[in-house]
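Reviewers asked in the last cycle whether our approach scales beyond single polypeptides. To address this, we selected a multi-component target totalling 423 residues and predicted its structure end to end. The input consisted of the following lines:
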Amino acid sequence: MIPQVLEVAARGSFLHKSLGFLEIKRQGTIVGQVDLDQFQTLLITSPSVTLSSPLLSDLANRHIVVILCDSHYVPNAILQPLASHNQEGDRLQDQINMTEPMRKNYWKQIVAAKLRHQAIVLDSYQKKNVARLHKLSSDVHSGDPDNKEAQGARLYWQSLYGEAFRRQQKGSGKNVLLNYGYTVLRSAVIRGLYSAGLNPAIGLLHSPNRNPFCLADDLMEPYRPMIDALVYQLEGNLTPEIKAILSKSLTIDTLYKEEKVPLGKVFQNIAWDMVTSLKSKSKSLNLADMPVEVSEWTREIITSVGTR
Amino acid sequence: MDTGDYYLSGYKMMWMMVLFDLPVMTDFERSEANRFRVFLKKQGFTMAQYSVYYKSLSGKEMIPKYEKRVKEALPQHGQVDILYVTDKQFENIVSYYCRKKGKKRDDNNRQLLLY
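The resulting structure, written as structure tokens, was:
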């Protein structure tokens, strides 16, 4: 499995399975064939794409995450394989049996990591509020009852993108780039969960009432700052180059148990660890650390795409 | 820090090439040869020439998996060779078509495929 992202953005595309390939046709002519072992995410961003059912079922068998997006690049549907794992029933029971203290402790660790990563991003761009975010990060209590996450977010967005910036899914400018980056990130988390047989609908704090992928949204929180750091360096519309840069965020090495693991793969490790934690009723969750040399890896990714 | 190099590196990515010379004198031999070609396509191999098929693998660790599959699908007769080259080596292929030099191969080492 080569961990690539396949995006279909052109109108009037027809996608079907042809032997071991996903074939893309437009107006009856073949415009591309992609080996089904070659990508891990299929992103449909065009408003008029037709998909065949044998293709969809084969993608589900291969645990390829299929995401449909609205015009703001916010995912609005995801194809979920029914039996993604032979231990799924077992895992589901463990997830349901998750106790309130476990849930709250996991959430505490996620929020603390997110605030710490936000501080690292601000620090490397010489912004203010670094110390305050570090302080918030070390003060998070179990379940984050006083909502340090929201306090941090207010400071963070203002410091990073300026007073005028508002983070809104339906917003314009940098918001669209952020949506795209988060969508790519979310697909990696969902794949990680499927590979460990975890059900993304049973989350920690995000409510399943309005979101069937809340566990994925919980686990991606600490890594959103990595996308924010990349978007900080980018300007303008969502061009193919910028999409390539944002997709490449999955190649950034995070630090997981003192080992370098790329972001696109680390969620498999995190998910497997979560399985162990759930089984043993442990209150601790192993999360990966963001690489601290922010200006270095953002520059490297942007130049590597620019030279192609 | 070598970010992309670890994940989608041209030195780590491998191309698996299956080269074969199969007899097609009898109906049985023809159907065997055909079955083998369809098998390769189902596994995601692309035809380079009539009896040369290739597929990209994310790294050396994928080799045993596909080698085993090919071995199990071998036709009754004829010769089949399997060859591995890294993406970097494959990138330097020199191709001619009707005496004209073909264009350089588009590298596979990208994170986003956009259609």
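Chain B has a mean pLDDT of 85. We regard this as preliminary and will revisit it once experimental data from Aim 1 are available.
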